[in-house]
Amino acid sequence: MSTKSRPPPGSNQEAQSSQLPAIGPDDSFVRVVKALSVYIVDEITLPSTFEQLRTTSAGNKIRLLVEHLVLNCTNPALINALLTLKWHFSTLEVDDRGLNETRANACEIVAWRFLTQVSERDAVDFCLYELPPVQPRGEDGHANGNGESADEHTNLLPQIRPRSALAPTASDRPGSRRVDLLRSVSGIGIVPGGEEQVEIDEEEDPTTSFTGLNGLEIAAVADCKKFLSQRIVQRIITGIWNGDITFWQSMSTNAKKKPQFYSKRKSDPFTRLRVPRYIKVFEVLFFATFLALYYAVLVERNPYHVTFLEICLYIWLAAFSYDEFSEFIDAGSIFYAVDIWNGCDVIIILIGAAFLITRYIGLAQDSIPITDTAFDILSLEALFMVPRICSLLSLHSYFGTLIPCLKEMAKDFVKFMVIVAVLYIGFLTTFSLLARDKFTLSEMSWILIKVFFGSSYLGFDIMNDINAKLGPPLMLIFITMTNILLVTSLISILSNTFSKVISHAREEYLFVYSVYVLEASTGARLTHFYPPLNLIPLIFIRPLRLFFSAEQLRHTRILLLKVTHSPIVGAIWLFEAANDYVQGTARPFLSMGPGTGKFTGSIVSSRRQRPFLSDRANSKTHSGQFTLFDRPDSSGPQIYSVKSKKENDKAEVVAHDNTDLEAKVADLSLKITELTALIMAQQGTVGEE
Q1: Distance CA 637, CA 596 (A)
Q2: Does a cis peptide bond (omega within 30 degrees of 0) precede residue 567?
Q3: 3-state secondary structure 623-642
Q4: Which of 93, 126, 279, 384 is deepest in the core (most CB within 10 A)?
Q5: Do 270 and 565 contact (CB within 8 A), yes or no?
Q6: Where does this protein have compositionally biased stretches of type Polar residues (predicted)?
Q7: How would you classify the pairing of strands 260-261 and 628-630?
């Protein structure tokens, strides 16, 4: 595939078409990545901001690429390739011109603009298409395609990424996936400004680390926050959140994960346990019970022996710790750290472990003071457990928008306090030495802390006691710097941070929300046990791994899940039945299915084959998802022959005479076309200059 040859100067249209990437429907992922990279590197040669690429003539090449891809590209890995390139250009060394950042933004813009030009079902197929694993070239010559059932690890930054389905590596660790991806994109072989394309070595595919990831997961890995915040992408994520789009249809040993539209008649009701909103609801219920047991133990406060309520609190704490550990293993440290509430979870576990150890020591030594210390440690849990149960508010757009602002303001506050600490230590040393005969170091420390937080009169009262000559001027300087200069500067910095972050806070909120939905739904683990029921397979099934095969263990886990979670599934069924009765059975993606959502590789018939600047009235191609209308050449009342994809020439619809309306629409369409051509011509002139 050669995209470097320049046509002779003659036809601008031919020149443009020769530069556009040629992507076949069956091209491998690495070939798609390289074909797109050559075009991006060749055409994006001037630094521009995201808004300039989106709204000015600087994005003309992007618009041409989007139109070309909409009309000609049917490769299902297109979105995966564009977002992988975004990751690649973002991880390159920062240049003075900011060209790599411009190219990264261009890839992100092309991805979401492409989705807006196709049908919603095609958008779902593109976004949820998982890159197939590369077939290993071992001695057997083939790869095992059932590697997903053994370990049941999530595809979203998994803890262990096997080189093949049969031989997982033992050297990987949590979070090492991001390092692996960095190495992968660095080996794509794209040299900005280079004149030769690096040959593709199929045996050493540099993009193998992305296998098993769908487009949305790659977007989360690549920090494509603007892409994830687009309306079409959020519709897909909301569909996953509500359970309208699922990844499992049956709860059986041979079940395979694939994106599909939910059908109540075909799907196993136990697969509803993987719906993110139900996971969140039962997580809140678990925390409410956890908090009730916590208050009951603190009120009871038995210093002599362990009570029944305290045993229940230990069970809840163990189930919570195991659930957090499983989430950390499945998601990896990178995505686990994205959620701010996971930090609270870790602190809750550490405080609980400290209480358990101190409580055991107090009971073993029969020491009342140590036991009191244990309950004092347990009382600290309320600082994190109460906000944790209110984490449900973070899913609301208003509260979820404020959390990123508070997070960034806290970062700036910590950075600013470094300057405060340096000045404080300097003045503390001076005042302690000057008043060494009257104030101890501890007393002087507390006095200066009170002065810093507004008690200026304390400093003026003791400045003569510190030193008759140096005390007053030094204290005046300290009070002026702390109460006027530093505090005012801190308020200004935090205000600037708030105003800067609030403009992008919704993108941050949607990014965290999207990551949570993907973590909760796209994992390869078929059986998901809700805490505290997750302790049952840990105690009774985990030891059996030494004796049973992976298939037998999976069958046993499925049976245990159906026995223990039947009441929960019944509650979910009643809720959905009541919801359908009140709101009706209409679903956000009703026009798309429900269907399997499986990518067939031939999507030309189901896509709106229309350039985004073309005239709707003169368009000859339509999406296979919509009805095709053949208008007969006659006057008077128009008769349209309705042809659907499965029923061809089986129905006729008689429409009323709308001649005047059609004439006005045609005239308006002509004016819009002329105006569009004029604007594009002016933008092209500016771009050439």
Answers
A1: 40
A2: no
A3: CCCCCEEECCCCCCCCEEEE
A4: 126
A5: yes
A6: 11-20
A7: unpaired
Helix (H, G, I), strand (E, B) or coil at 345: helix
Spatial separation of the C-alpha atoms in residues 447 and 429, rounded to whole Å: 13
The domain spans of the chain are 1-133+158-262, 398-507
In 3D, which of 83, 84, 116 has the Cα closest to residue 236?
A: 116
* 463 touches 472 (CB < 8 A): yes
132: buried, middle or exposed (CB in 10 Å: 19+, 13-18, 0-12)? middle
3-state secondary structure 532-545: CCCHHHHHHCHHHH
Looking up tokens 């919509």 gives: 626
Taken in order 290, 295, 300, 304, the sign of the CA dihedral is: positive
Task: Report residue 358's pLDDT band, with 50, 70 and 90 as the boundaries.
Answer: very high
Distance CA 689, CA 680 (A): 14
Bond before 594 cis per omega within 30 degrees: yes
Q: CA 563 to CA 557: how far, in whole Å?
A: 10
Range 414-420, long-range pairs (CB < 8 A, 24+ positions): 416/489, 416/490, 416/493, 419/486, 420/452, 420/482, 420/486
Tokens encoding 468: 């008759």
Kindly state the helix (H) or strand (E) to which residue 392 belongs, with its residue range: none
Contact 230, 249 (CB under 8 A): no
226 close to 82: Cβ distance less than 8 angstroms: no
Q: Measured on CA atoms in the order 633, 634, 635, 637, is the torsion positive or negative?
A: negative
- Tokens 């009541």 locate to 578
Query: What pLDDT is attached to residue 683?
Result: 55
Q: Is the C-alpha dihedral spanning 556, 557, 562, 563 positive or negative?
A: positive
Q: What is the pLDDT of residue 652?
A: 42
Does residue 408 sit in helix, strand or coil? helix
Count CB-CB contacts under 10 A for residue 193.
Answer: 8
The CA distance from 165 to 150, in Å, is: 9
* Of the candidates 177, 253, 151, the residue with the CA atom closest to the CA atom of residue 562: 253
pLDDT at 203 (0 to 100): 42
343 pLDDT band (50/70/90 cuts)?
A: confident
Residues 662 and 672: their CA atoms lie apart, in Å, by 15
Query: Pick from 545, 511, 523, 532: which is nearest to 404 by CA?
Result: 511
Phi-psi region of 584 (alpha: psi -120 to 50; beta: other; left: phi over 0): left
